[in-house]
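QA checklist item 7 of 12: single-chain prediction sanity check.
[x] sequence parsed
[x] length recorded as 427
[x] structure emitted
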Amino acid sequence: MAYKGWKRLALGVVSASALLLLAACNGGGGDGETSTSGGDAGGSTTLKVDVDPRYSDYVNEIIPAFEKEHDVTIEINERDMFDGMEALPLDGPAGIGSDVLIAPYDKVGVLGLQGHLAEVTLPDDDRYDELDQRQVTVEDTVYGAPFVIESLVMYYNKDLLDQAPETFADLEALSKDDQYAFENEAGTNTAFLANWTTAYQYIGLLSGYGGYVFGENGTDPTDIGLNTPEAIEGITYISEWYQNVWPKGMLDATSSENFMNELFTNGDTAAVINGPWGAAGYEEAGVNYGVSTIPTLPNGKEYEPFAGGVAWVASKYSKNQDLAQEWLVYVTNAENSETLYEVTSEIPANQEARKTASEKDDELTQAVIEQFNSAVPMPNIPEMNEVWTGAETLIFDAATGNKTPKEAADDAVQFIQENIEQKYSSQ
């Protein structure tokens, strides 16, 4: 079952204009005195909710019970999640913003530290585990309620493989099969492909080798672990795929994912690493695909992708803070989270609903949930923006041979460090 209406989250990639806007409005109007909701002077009876279009059907289904219980009107503002985040720093202080909205986990901490989000309280009902809570916590403050989880997984063509590869040794052996020789480039093979030009995709491999982004559970930007000996070992392994196995097109960051997906849907590739967003295209193309966790790495460790997803957050500028808190608790409870899965096929963060979803006969759901158990929280501090930029060409530099894996990693880390010092040292 492909995610219904699922669209890829541009995790860690907010437009430059959005970042400038957030920085310019850092902390502005953070006293919560500005009203963002309609109603009379005695108190608003309207809660304004920003809803990304892919969640509209779900939210509309659960609205009536909340409105009745709280004697409130829910006013829906349907717009792209990133548009809502971008508008918050200006719309909030102007009194025209929404009370609650959705944000990817790596932006929750950023928006919170910049003074745009209200501190919230998570229910003490075991709906979240420690990993879930870390996704929305920064500097010991909780700024959101986990809503949806996601993770990279492995897709494989059931018409080509009897079962999912279990180890990278299996993938290496598969890539020696002439059936998958790439006819346009002698000596190359497309049996297995992964878009490791993108940091979001390859950092999970480096983490499996022992590398990391920031120390202290992703909260210490002075400790960057992308050039440790362990991380360099992972970079070296990735480079070997590009240098010894894959066609040159896999190194083009602008087209490598499309290249990979085209070969997979054409039956020229047996297995790929991708996120839940890949399922709809594979299903539409008629691929008889299966889904599993990512195979065990050559060092015997698990691939540790970022724990992705989105959370509900409350605007710091809203006068309806108590009602916004109630909404966050309501929209993420077990019953509504099960409805979320039924309507959208997206996997709820709520542990009880997640367990229910895992019991469904759906390989994608089961694989994402299982892979999520080995995932690591994506750092949600502002300095993470510099990692996306600094690590952008790391694999390209190493895989082309322009630099050794160590040189590529050292240069990337130096670039990240310099940008962090320049932009954040005075804060």
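[x] summary fact logged: The chain has two domains: 16-150+307-377, 153-304+393-424.
[ ] second reviewer sign-off
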